[in-house]
Amino acid sequence: MVEEVYRNIYRIGVALPGNPLRELNSYLIRGRDRDLLIDTGFRRPICQQMLEKGLSELGSDPSRRDVLVTHLHSDHCGMADLFAGPERHIYMSGVDLELFALSSDPSYSWDTRNYRFHEEGFPAALLEEVYATNPARTEKMPGVDHRFLPLKDGDVLRVGDYALETLLVPGHTPGNCMFYLRDQQVMFTGDHVLFDITPNITNWVSMRDSLGSYLDQLRRVRDLPVRLALPGHRKTGNYRDRVDAILAHHKRRLDEVLVILGDRPGLCGYDIAAEMRWKIRARSWEDFPPVQKWFAVGECMSHLDYHLVRGSIRCEKEGGLRRYYLTEE
Ligand SMILES: [Zn+2]
Questions:
Q1: Ligand 1 geometric centre to CA of 324 (Å)
Q2: Could you tell me if 43 and 78 lie in one domain?
Q3: Which residues hold their Cβ within 5 A of ligand 1, which is an ion?
Q4: Hey, which of 16, 31, 167, 240 would disulfide with 160, CB 3.0 to 4.6 Å?
Q5: Are residues 209 and 257 in the same domain?
Q6: How far is the CA of 73 from the centre of ligand 1 (A)?
Q7: What's the 319 CA to ligand 1 centre distance in angstroms?
Q8: Distance 224 CA to ligand 1 centre (A)
């Protein structure tokens, strides 16, 4: 499925079978000297075939194609190395590039990340199941090569008539980016702003308060004029209205956590997540697929961290578990 969404900008839908996100939006910008492909899909044969088909329909020549990724998640960067020409560039924020390189090193251990999940009461057997099947590990790009170039906030990439301005918006990942065509008021929102699904905000070892950062970055970009938003998944919509709706969503979520802890002080993250409301086709928390539980607990942790940093809750370590309590007035 290929469509022109703006002059010389094409959307290629890349299916993500079995994933609640359903599809990745890959965008190709056609320029005189080069093509720029934004985001790629998981490293999986079906994704590769779909993207190859879309690009050949558009007559895009790999030898003049660069790749730009919005962030390090495998559904966005999983095939970046396969779709950039051998002597071309692959752009990614310096922050995510460093993190990606670190996690690709054979000596890297996922234990640092697992540790917090254990402390939140996530059952060890479930965690093992999640790590065995998580596409973040199983369908990722193997590593970084000479073609990778780091981007920082404000960097501008030129393609044809367009100037893409890099907006570093940490939260969804530590080096998450959006790309802005200021003259045209077009925004590639990646996973910072999605329209019919809420971006997942989890905790990161390198971020003390990923949700606080995410919300700050939403407020920072809210008032930029955007006539067309091009998100990383699913449909587009009104940009500013959606930013406001996501801000309101997290306000409700943050309040919900306080209500749960008011009723049941001393819960761990795993049990708080079980009490929170989730938009998912499962009858109960017990029926959640393990990977979805992992996402939910991650999301819950970012909300707990937000409150911890602001002093509205406190955490006590008891028998290797983190237990949370409202702070007395
Ligand atoms: Zn993502």
A1: 28
A2: yes
A3: 73, 191
A4: 31
A5: no
A6: 5
A7: 34
A8: 22
- 173 & 299 share domain: no
Predicted confidence (pLDDT) per residue in 189-202, tens digit:
999 999 999 999 99
User: In this structure, are 311 and 162 located in the same domain?
Assistant: no
> Do 266 and 317 fall within a single domain?
yes
126 part of a folded domain: no
**DSSP H helices in the chain:** 45-57, 74-77, 80-83, 94-104, 111-119, 124-133, 135-138, 210-222, 239-263, 269-275, 290-310
Considering the domain architecture, whether residues 169 and 253 belong to the same structural domain is answered as no
Find the 328 Cα to ligand 1 centroid distance in Å: 36
CA–centroid distance, 76 to ligand 1, in Å, is 7
Nearest to 222 by CA among 254, 255, 245, 256: 245
Domain coverage including residue 144: 2-112+134-238
Question: Ligand 1 centroid vs 94 CA: distance in angstroms?
Answer: 16
**Is residue 231 located within the same domain as residue 293?**
no
Q: How far is the CA of 137 from the centre of ligand 1 (A)?
A: 14
Distance (angstroms) between ligand 1 centre and the Cα of 265 equals 32
Residue in 84, 3, 2 with CA at minimum distance from that of residue 39: 84
Q: At 94, which CATH number?
A: 3.60.15.10
Looking at 214, 238, 262, the residue that finishes a domain is 238
Which residues does the chain have with pLDDT short of 70?
Answer: 135-136, 329
pTM above 0.90, yes or no: yes
pLDDT at 18: 83
Measure CA of the first residue to CA of the last residue in the chain; give whole Å.
56
Q: Cβ of 5: how many Cβ atoms within 10 Å?
A: 13
Ligand 1 midpoint to CA 4 (Å)? 23
Same domain, yes or no: 91 and 182: yes
Residue 303 contacts residue 253 (beta carbons within 8 Å): yes
